[in-house]
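Annual report, structural modelling task.

Input specification for the flavin mononucleotide complex:
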Amino acid sequence: MKSAIVAAATVAAACICSAETTRLPAPDGDSGVTVAQALKARHSERAFADKELSPELLSGVLWAANGFNRPDKRTNATGLNKQEISVYAIMKSGAYRYDAKGNALVKVCDEDLRPSVAGHQPFAATAPVSLLIAADVSDPIYTGARSTLSNYDAGIVSGNIYLYCAANGLATVCRRSMDNDALKKALKLPDTTILHLNHPVGYPAGGEDAAVGAPSVKTERNREAMRLFEKCINANDLELGRRLISEKAAFNTPVSPTPLYGAEGYLSVVALMRRSFPDVQWKLVDMVADEKTVAVQWECSGTFNGDAPFAGLQPNGRRFSTTVMNFYSFDDDGKIFKDVAATGIAGILQGIGAIK
Ligand SMILES: Cc1cc2nc3c(=O)[nH]c(=O)nc-3n(C[C@H](O)[C@H](O)[C@H](O)COP(=O)(O)O)c2cc1C
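The model returned the following structure:
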């Protein structure tokens, strides 16, 4: 019952436009790690955590599978550019056709068809979503020597799904086996549609470490996020900040009696600093990362020649350069939700009233 509610909430969280169509969040074209890191991490995984995929990751994996990356062409190549592949998201709350142009899920069946996708491999039904790769071969070109063309196209979609999952710490496996007849009947698909492959997708059971031998893509993702965070604070880039900082993140700062939230909150503190030190910059000198936390050593420098006082002092044109240490905590979606700064000597001086 609990997971049925969560499954419905995942789709609901993605903004319902009509009873049958659910708009997905815009795919994040900058998420994940480098292609080489994703290739190193790619593997088949058959055990899934009992947890729904976030709407962002669901949107991302569908886009990677068969989305548009140009106005009329897609992330996946197809023979003769026929674009005959469709992807279905098979979930507890029903079966949905991915509308790549509209970035939406269109409900085609109310039933939980995951057992039909799983067939004789029950593990597959435990993933929160299975992506079903279908090909419409009604075009007469799919005869003779070209009768198998859509097989290759399906394989390319599968490769995209594997890489997206590897880059984002998700578990998946490409599967040929499934109950074809039951699925085609439930999805009301004609004989000219071939169900080629399916991909159960979910968070790995037991956390990312459970994937024996797999490098930690979450750790790499967090490191990459910190490199982008450096750009974000130095360029005061709110859009980038929104991608990196959870909107639920609460920051306690001396400048406000109540916590400041999200990217807006964080960057408003940086903006205050910039009023006193217009050229303030943070240089990321070193970092130590794991799947949940990144510790960063910053070199922070600036000139006290702005128009706002700082710690009770009026701007005096003097320049500072100092080492700052922060611990950043990351949530499951790879966003910063907590920042703890080492106050060091400043904390002592503040505590005894030497500085404000
Ligand atoms: C076309 C194709 C069909 C597959 N079908 C299944 C399947 O039905 N069930 C399954 O558990 N794995 C299936 N696999 C996954 C392979 O077993 C897996 O890729 C292989 O063992 C290599 O492991 P790796 O992906 O971790 O490199 C399939 C893979 C491919 C490419």
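The longest helix spans residues 149-167.
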